[in-house]
Every structure is written in C-alpha cells, then in structure tokens.
User: What shape does this take?
Amino acid sequence: MKRFRLLLPVACACLLALGASASADPGEEQDHDAHLEAILDPSPPAPQAKSRNVEVLAHVYPGPGTNADVYGHRNHAYLASWVGRGCLSKGVRVYDLRDPRNPTHVSTFADVASDPSLRRTWTEKVIVKHVNTPAFNGDLAVVSFQTCSGTADRLDPSVFRGFGLYDVTNPAQPVKLALYATEPGVNRGSHEIWLESAGDRAYVYTAIIDSELRTERAKADFRIVDVSDPRSPVEVGQWGAWKELGIPPREGVRQNFVHSVITNDQATRAYLSYWDLGTVILDISNPAQPRYLGRTSFRADETGNAHSAAIARGDDLLVETRETGAGLPAIYDISNPAAPVRLSDFVIDGYERDTVHDPKIRGGKVYFSWYSFGVVVADISRPTQPKLLAQFVPEHDVVNPDFFCTTPCTEVWGTFVDGNYVLASDMNSGLWVFRVK
Assistant: This one.
C-alpha cells in the first residue's frame, strides 16, 4: 500500500467528490470517516526534506481537532478546520499576530460550541476582506460549511450546508450576519469560496461539487451570490460546463466538477478549478451572465485534477495545481484566455512522493502548500524557468488524536503570504508563522 500522503490529499480536499465519483449513483456515497479509515495508512510517513532559507517565528497548537486552510488579514490569522475523525465542528480560530512571535488566540466563530445550528459541519475555507457597500462597511469573513459524513448528513435537512457571513471588524468579537444555505439533499454545501468587491457591490463566489450532476443541470457547480448586504445574501448568477458547453460531469474516467474558484481584483474574471476539465476562465463583469473565455487542458497521458489556481501579472499568468499523485504545478500564459499556453512545470526533488495543494503569489514568488513538503517557495519572475527559493517543513512532536497519524507527521494544508511573514496551516499541528530569508 502506498503511503497515505498520496491518498490523503485527494481524500481531504475532495471528500465531496470521492463519494459521488465512486458510482454513477450519488446516493451510494460512503461515510467520510469510514472511507478515510479504510484507505489511510497510519504508519509513520517517510522522512521529507527539511526547511531551508526560512526563519520560524512561532507555532500554535490549537488542541484536538484537525486544521484546514488559513487566511491572514490585518495582523490576524484565521485558521479553519477539517472534518477529522469525529466531526468536531471546531469552526474558525482567530489569532492576533501584531507580535508575530507571540500569536494570541482572541476568538473562535462558526463553530458548534457557539452556534449549535452548525452541528455536523466542517469549515474548510475562510476568506476575510474589507468591504464597503451602502449596507456594510467593515471587515467581512465568509466561511464555507459542508456536511460531515456521507449520504445520511447530505439527506438530513437539519444539517446546515452553504456558507456563513461574519462581521470581524473587531476580530476578538465576531458577529454572525447570515447563513446562506445551499440545497439540502442535493449537495453537501460550499466546498471552496472567494470574496471580492466590485464597485459598491460585494460578491461571494462558491464551488458546489457535482451540483450539475445531482440536479441534471438545473443548478450549476459555480454560483455567484451578492453579499453587498451581508445580512441578506442573494444568488445572482451561476455557470456549469454541462449546461453551457455540453460537457457532462462524467466522461469515462474523467470527472468534471468545480473544486475551487478565485477572481481577479476587479471581479471581472473568475478562474474555476474544474478538475479534469482544467482551469476554466470566465468573464464575470455581468455576474448574472458569466461568459466562457477559455480553459487549460491536459495531455492525454496526464491525470487532470485541477485543484486550485493563482494569478499574477494582471491576468496574464496562471499557476495551476493538480491534486494527484506525482502532480506538478503548471505555469500558463493566459494573456489570450481562449488559448492558454503552458510555459513550464515546477519540479522539486522527490515530488513523486506527494502532491501539491494550493498556490499563493506575491510579487515574483509563488508559495505552495505541499502537504509533507510543507510550504515550498519558488521564483517565477522567469515563468519558463521557475526556481526553488525556500522551503518550510514543520518540525513538531504533536500527535493529534483526531488526525490519522499515530506518530507526529506533517501535512500542510494551506499558506498565506503577508508583507511581514508567511502563515502555514498544518492539519495535525496547527498554525505556523515564518519568514523567508
């Protein structure tokens, strides 16, 4: 059996897709926890490369419960949580980083302890941005909610799924503004999300895995929700490849569903990580009528699994990660979105042992969360020749009872780049703060 690092990323980041793709009938989904227990090897992972060219500033172990993505905003870190073994519904933990060497926990929100209506949910993703509309002026957090287990939770209308909106203008006192629900019995909620302002409007963009498949094209995987008044969110647009392009969700072994979404700063383009369909580029200048511009594609001998994306140089450069065994990040010239040009793949030693997860770009550098390889930093100022600059691999002695390792192990889910530091979220050990030398 291969080490679980070749299996865990697909399981942890795409739980919603695994059950649906196991059979033509989405109703035959397995319970998440039982499924993971069956495929994960609990033996210690093989040693990986150690940190290089970084200075570790701080580490915070949040206690039992597994961790998901991390987001930084105004000297605070927002640490999301994964489903883990027991579906603890830990929500989002907020840490004050004004002294980045001494993070301080200041609040928790979107968790079952503070909001019992959120039982049996997990919060993979949190995005925090300043929003200024006629109805709201402050820092807004959007949090994804998915049901924890398989068919039972998906079919249970009492289990919430969708996303939540919170006023975090005072990060120590988050205020729930609204919960936006997706269709019970059809999907498990918002898998990944994005938040962006456009003029005096604000929108949440969300990926709802296999919605087109389960609703026979009636509801798309990609949704746009107007949150200009975050107390009253309203869906205004959607897009799906089956309805719009005639490309079905299943083509032999290929699976076409929206896993992730980002937009540019102007909220005029959306980039949908559409798994085996590649990265789909849409014009969203009119949110009510998204318009297809083009997409990346894969060679016949390649596994798809377009998982996440980041853009640079305006809208001209795209970094695409593929969450699959031995998958490598690809860099594209998308100055003509109708015909993306693959410029290079970024290769690191030993990449066959693991899979990359999410990319973040700042300046001419891209920061990859790469599970057991930690955070990998590459120079992409010459995108045809990306170069390794630095790497951070957490070293710790934590054995998390809600994780799947019986000895300490590294599984970095997410990273966020601030001007003064870099954040990393380890599924097992929690929040790390470091600098690149």
Q: What stands out?
A: Residues 1-47 have pLDDT under 50 and may be disordered.
